[in-house]
């Protein structure tokens, strides 16, 4: 912990980079997954294809995704963020599709009876009903992204992983442990916080 | 040959050694393995029996092996000899540094042969297009263009006397931005993808040959020379020294980049690469 | 592709090392998770505690866990193995406990009525019924471990990750792509194979 008190600036910068990487990657991933999920949910063939694609993407190791982008996109922030977005995509996509498909038939029929268009139904009925499941996907995605952002250091993306790799390279155990503990706390904190929100949300939807 | 055998038979111990195998060592990276093979095969071509004791580890280990008489020679860089072994500041021009290491090694019973044309020191690289567009061939040229360029280098480059502070002091060089990448491969990727305009590397890296990067000349001698030469236990070479010295002028940085590339990128054995070079160029 | 063609032995060795690391950690994780799961499945207090701490272990990012183990165990195979077991155990444990929990009480009563001992009931009734769930856990665990073992190269445990990392260090595109491609393929194949086994099991439970 001496390293931390000696270099608070470096530490905060690494935390900032880590959060920026994670949030940007997560935002892009969700921005892609959500509309894609809404679009394919009512087209059984496409929905199945999307779920298979998500399964493949989920199975490919994070380090492989990051490394494979280097020859295409070079080093640093951009390829790291794109890799993180790719990792965030599958859980949100799958849960959106399943959530919408599982939305209550009776509620949908009622919406149709009220003369709602497809998009109106999607936003006013299906999405609210699917929200708890989508949020669960978001939680999984967020934890994965915060974890994988630690690997961005290998392609020059910065973040807390830098402290770990520098620590190991310089035989500076303090720096390495500060990085490792911070990464672990960030991931566990994300999981706990979003888990709490998720239970809150589920209770409200059930109550409504 | 017959004369040597005869003398050896007369049992003068010092001379008997000349007929025994010469033990060629090396440190543990590609260039060292290739050059050790070149030395070994050149000596074999001159009629010597050679034993290879390569891949010994870092500078300290190779040097200890030489002192202990476990090897008879290995390739070393003048700047490394001065800085790491003799622990003197590696400063001065090529001739001065060579004179210093020769003087410093002599009491240890070790000789530096005349260096090859290889000088594997620090280097700043740019894309060939950048060099053409901005008319860059030396670091002095770069100093003019630097305020518009991004430099990528290792983590320690910002603070080391021969890094940014040295560039500032000797060339008055100020870059628009400095990005740190510990891994050399990331610096090369940054250069290729236009995420950095200038990167710090080493002059005989094979990536320079592969991607055709332009190496800018250190025209005001900020960096010490790292000329590659054979360091030899005094007297073991006998009349074989010319065989090694003949290699020197045939080796230069572009040649070494290509030989390193054949091992690292194509996955060939140092032995094959050395043999083909000796056949082709000899 | 010249490097790959000339270094098939290196690539093969990396693939084997990777598979070895994955197989060893899965086996060890099964050895830990099976008895532990059986022990806690019928004890609600212990179950909550074990599952809770297991999910914390599972949420630890790979690089962080490896880095935390370095000062204690050093570099190489042993800390990598321990870290990978740490990932696999919670997944297997959760799957086993869920599988055992889903066995209908009526079935258990029937088994008791037939005069089976506790041991017989476990091996002839409960475990076979929990097998599909356990296999599902094994599938998730193996994909997770293939992925985490890639990062193990960073603490010198070898495997396909070392191709990726040396490729990144050298700027050797071919090494990066061969390493990343093989590890992705390995994960997909393992997932597909265990998925196929899962589907061939009689649908039960």
Automatic annotation (TrEMBL), chain A:
<feature type="transmembrane region" description="Helical">
    <location>
        <begin position="76"/>
        <end position="98"/>
    </location>
</feature>
<feature type="domain" description="ABC transmembrane type-1">
    <location>
        <begin position="15"/>
        <end position="194"/>
    </location>
</feature>
<feature type="transmembrane region" description="Helical">
    <location>
        <begin position="49"/>
        <end position="70"/>
    </location>
</feature>
<keyword id="KW-1133">Transmembrane helix</keyword>
<feature type="transmembrane region" description="Helical">
    <location>
        <begin position="20"/>
        <end position="42"/>
    </location>
</feature>
<keyword id="KW-0472">Membrane</keyword>
<dbReference type="InterPro" id="IPR051204">
    <property type="entry name" value="ABC_transp_perm/SBD"/>
</dbReference>
<dbReference type="InterPro" id="IPR035906">
    <property type="entry name" value="MetI-like_sf"/>
</dbReference>
<feature type="transmembrane region" description="Helical">
    <location>
        <begin position="129"/>
        <end position="156"/>
    </location>
</feature>
<dbReference type="Pfam" id="PF00528">
    <property type="entry name" value="BPD_transp_1"/>
</dbReference>
<feature type="transmembrane region" description="Helical">
    <location>
        <begin position="176"/>
        <end position="197"/>
    </location>
</feature>
<keyword id="KW-0812">Transmembrane</keyword>
<protein>
    <submittedName>
        <fullName>ABC transporter permease subunit</fullName>
    </submittedName>
</protein>
<dbReference type="InterPro" id="IPR000515">
    <property type="entry name" value="MetI-like"/>
</dbReference>
<comment type="similarity">
    <text>Belongs to the binding-protein-dependent transport system permease family.</text>
</comment>
From TrEMBL, chain B:
<protein>
    <submittedName>
        <fullName>ABC transporter substrate-binding protein</fullName>
    </submittedName>
</protein>
<feature type="domain" description="ABC-type glycine betaine transport system substrate-binding">
    <location>
        <begin position="22"/>
        <end position="279"/>
    </location>
</feature>
<feature type="signal peptide">
    <location>
        <begin position="1"/>
        <end position="18"/>
    </location>
</feature>
<dbReference type="Pfam" id="PF04069">
    <property type="entry name" value="OpuAC"/>
</dbReference>
<dbReference type="InterPro" id="IPR007210">
    <property type="entry name" value="ABC_Gly_betaine_transp_sub-bd"/>
</dbReference>
<keyword id="KW-0732">Signal</keyword>
Automatic annotation (TrEMBL), chain C:
<dbReference type="InterPro" id="IPR051204">
    <property type="entry name" value="ABC_transp_perm/SBD"/>
</dbReference>
<keyword id="KW-1133">Transmembrane helix</keyword>
<feature type="transmembrane region" description="Helical">
    <location>
        <begin position="62"/>
        <end position="85"/>
    </location>
</feature>
<keyword id="KW-0812">Transmembrane</keyword>
<feature type="transmembrane region" description="Helical">
    <location>
        <begin position="176"/>
        <end position="197"/>
    </location>
</feature>
<dbReference type="InterPro" id="IPR000515">
    <property type="entry name" value="MetI-like"/>
</dbReference>
<comment type="similarity">
    <text>Belongs to the binding-protein-dependent transport system permease family.</text>
</comment>
<keyword id="KW-0813">Transport</keyword>
<feature type="transmembrane region" description="Helical">
    <location>
        <begin position="129"/>
        <end position="156"/>
    </location>
</feature>
<keyword id="KW-0472">Membrane</keyword>
<dbReference type="InterPro" id="IPR035906">
    <property type="entry name" value="MetI-like_sf"/>
</dbReference>
<dbReference type="Pfam" id="PF00528">
    <property type="entry name" value="BPD_transp_1"/>
</dbReference>
<feature type="transmembrane region" description="Helical">
    <location>
        <begin position="91"/>
        <end position="108"/>
    </location>
</feature>
<feature type="domain" description="ABC transmembrane type-1">
    <location>
        <begin position="15"/>
        <end position="195"/>
    </location>
</feature>
<protein>
    <submittedName>
        <fullName>ABC transporter permease</fullName>
    </submittedName>
</protein>
């Amino acid at each position: 912990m001496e390293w931390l008190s000696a270099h608070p600036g470096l530490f905060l910068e690494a935390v900032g980079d880590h959060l920026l990487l994670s949030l940007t990657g997560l935002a892009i991933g969700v921005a892609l997954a959500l509309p894609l999920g809404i679009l394919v949910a009512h087209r059984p063939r496409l929905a199945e294809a999307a779920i298979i694609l998500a399964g493949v993407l989920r199975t490919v190791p994070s380090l492989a995704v990051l490394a494979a982008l280097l020859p295409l996109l070079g080093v640093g922030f951009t390829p790291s963020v794109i890799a993180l977005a790719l990792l965030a995509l599958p859980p949100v996509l799958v849960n959106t599709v399943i959530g919408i498909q599982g939305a209550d038939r009776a509620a949908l029929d009622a919406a149709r009876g009220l003369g709602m268009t497809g998009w109106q139904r999607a936003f006013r009925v299906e999405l609210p009903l699917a929200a708890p499941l989508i949020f669960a996907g978001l939680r999984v995605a967020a934890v994965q992204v915060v974890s994988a952002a630690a690997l961005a250091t290998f392609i020059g993306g910065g973040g807390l992983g830098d402290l770990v790799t520098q620590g190991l390279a310089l035989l500076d155990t303090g720096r390495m442990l500060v990085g490792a503990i911070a990464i672990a706390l960030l991931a566990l904190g994300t999981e706990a916080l979003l888990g709490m929100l998720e239970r809150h949300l589920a209770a409200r939807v059930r109550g409504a | 040959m017959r004369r040597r055998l005869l003398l050896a038979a007369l049992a003068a111990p010092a001379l008997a050694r000349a007929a025994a195998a010469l033990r060629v060592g090396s440190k543990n990276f590609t260039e060292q393995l290739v050059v050790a093979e070149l030395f070994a095969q050149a000596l074999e071509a001159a009629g010597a029996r050679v034993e290879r004791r390569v891949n010994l580890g870092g500078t300290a280990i190779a040097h200890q092996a030489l002192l202990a008489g476990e090897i008879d020679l290995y390739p070393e860089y003048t700047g490394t000899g001065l800085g790491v072994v003799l622990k003197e500041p590696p400063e001065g021009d090529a001739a001065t540094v060579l004179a210093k290491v020769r003087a410093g090694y002599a009491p240890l019973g070790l000789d530096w042969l005349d260096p090859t044309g290889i000088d594997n020191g620090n280097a700043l690289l740019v894309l060939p297009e950048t060099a053409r567009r901005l008319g860059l061939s030396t670091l002095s040229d770069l100093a003019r263009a630097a305020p518009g360029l991004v430099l990528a280098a290792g983590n320690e480059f910002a603070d080391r006397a021969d890094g940014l502070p040295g560039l500032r002091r000797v060339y008055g060089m100020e870059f628009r931005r400095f990005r740190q990448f510990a891994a050399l491969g990331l610096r090369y990727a940054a250069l290729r993808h236009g995420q950095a305009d200038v990167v710090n590397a080493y002059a005989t890296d094979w990536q320079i040959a592969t991607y055709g990067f332009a190496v800018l000349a250190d025209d005001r001698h900020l960096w010490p020379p790292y000329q590659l030469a054979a360091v030899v236990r005094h007297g073991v070479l006998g009349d074989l020294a010319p065989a090694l010295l003949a290699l020197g002028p045939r080796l230069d940085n572009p040649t070494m980049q290509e030989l390193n590339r054949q091992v690292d990128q194509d996955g060939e054995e140092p032995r094959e690469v050395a043999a083909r070079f000796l056949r082709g160029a000899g | 592709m010249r490097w790959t063609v000339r270094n098939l032995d290196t690539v093969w060795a990396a693939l084997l090392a990777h598979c070895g690391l994955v197989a060893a950690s899965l086996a060890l994780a099964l050895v830990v998770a099976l008895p532990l799961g059986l022990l806690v499945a019928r004890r609600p207090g212990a179950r909550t505690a074990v599952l809770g701490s297991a999910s914390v272990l599972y949420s630890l990012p790979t690089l962080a866990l490896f880095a935390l183990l370095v000062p204690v165990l050093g570099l190489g195979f042993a800390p990598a193995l321990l870290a990978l077991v740490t990932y696999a155990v919670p997944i297997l444990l959760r799957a086993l406990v869920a599988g055992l929990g889903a066995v209908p009480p009526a079935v258990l009563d029937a088994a008791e009525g037939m005069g089976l001992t506790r041991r017989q009931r476990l091996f002839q009734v409960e475990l076979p019924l929990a097998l599909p769930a356990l296999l599902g856990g094994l599938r998730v665990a193996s994909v997770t471990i293939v992925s985490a073992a890639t990062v193990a190269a960073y603490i010198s445990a070898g495997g396909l990750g070392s191709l990726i990392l040396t490729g990144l260090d050298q700027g050797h595109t071919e090494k990066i792509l061969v390493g990343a491609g093989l590890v992705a393929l390995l994960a997909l194949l393992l997932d597909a194979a265990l998925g196929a086994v899962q589907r061939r099991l009689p649908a039960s439970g």
